[in-house]
Amino acid sequence: MKFLQEGTLANFLNRLTDLILLNLLWFVCCLPIFTIGASTCALYEITMRYALYEEPPIIRTFFETFRHSFKKATLLFLAFLAAGLFLALDLWCAILWDIPFRFVFIVVILAVFYFYLAVLSHVFPVLAYFDAGVKESVRRAFLFSMKNGVFTVFIMVINLLPALAIVAAPAYFGEILFLYLILGFSVISLLSSLHLVRLFDPQRAAKAQQTEVRQRQLKEEDGAGKEDKEA
């Protein structure tokens, strides 16, 4: 969506408007809860295309991806939800129970939690980009998440930011919630996508960047030529 003509400020405002619309679409489509997987998959489909300097039609692309990935994304969401609840219950029991080697159990569960969150932070982008099956998406998500640990931790942290912000500043719960409902989740997805497209397909990402740089140079040269003619 472009409401303003080209320019640095106009491009920023147009992208901001797109992200607000995308965030609202994601939130509304998450309301039935079991659709969170398909909605997240559609969200990443668009932000990863932004990261590749493409401009997909937001509403049409979102709902096409939502419909296409609904079954696989829902199965993944339900599986990860069940696994997450199981791990959380295990951790709660390990903390409360007075058993031998309790510290060892807690460390093991936290280690499993790390791998769980690492795969979870990659699996829906993987499904959106590769359109693979459920098992293959999990396998690829695990391999990609282990490929670059620093960026994996970064993606995990920014995905956990809403919860971390509320825990750190509970007095601002309303403001934090409002911010994320308006813009936060689409921005998180875009920041993650800037890394993920380079991780998933480095050659395509590099080619897209080169094309974008070349187009900018041509526009600058064209603009300079028009100024010379007017002078």
Description:
The protein has helices at 8-30, 36-51, 58-96, 102-130, 134-147, 149-168, 173-200, 202-230. The relative contact order is 0.11. The chain is mainly α. It has eight helices and no strands.
List the helices and strands and how they pair.
Blueprint: H1 8-30, H2 36-51, H3 58-96, H4 102-130, H5 134-147, H6 149-168, H7 173-200, H8 202-230
Helix pairs in contact: 1-2, 1-7, 2-3, 2-4, 2-7, 3-4, 4-5, 6-7, 7-8
List keywords for this structure.
about 230 residues, mainly alpha, about 0% strand, globular
Distance between the first and last residues' Cα: 34 Å
Sheet with the most strands, sense and barrel status: none
The radius of gyration computed from the alpha-carbon positions, rounded to a whole number of angstroms, is 21 Å
Give the class from helix and strand content and strand pairing.
mainly alpha
DSSP helical segment count:
8
- Helix percent reads over 70%
* Fraction in beta strands: under 5%
List the secondary-structure elements in sequence, H or E: HHHHHHHH
The general outline is: globular
- Give the overall average pLDDT: 90
Q: Could you list the spans in which at least 5 consecutive residues all have pLDDT below 50?
A: none
User: How many β-strand runs?
Assistant: 0
Multimeric organization: single chain
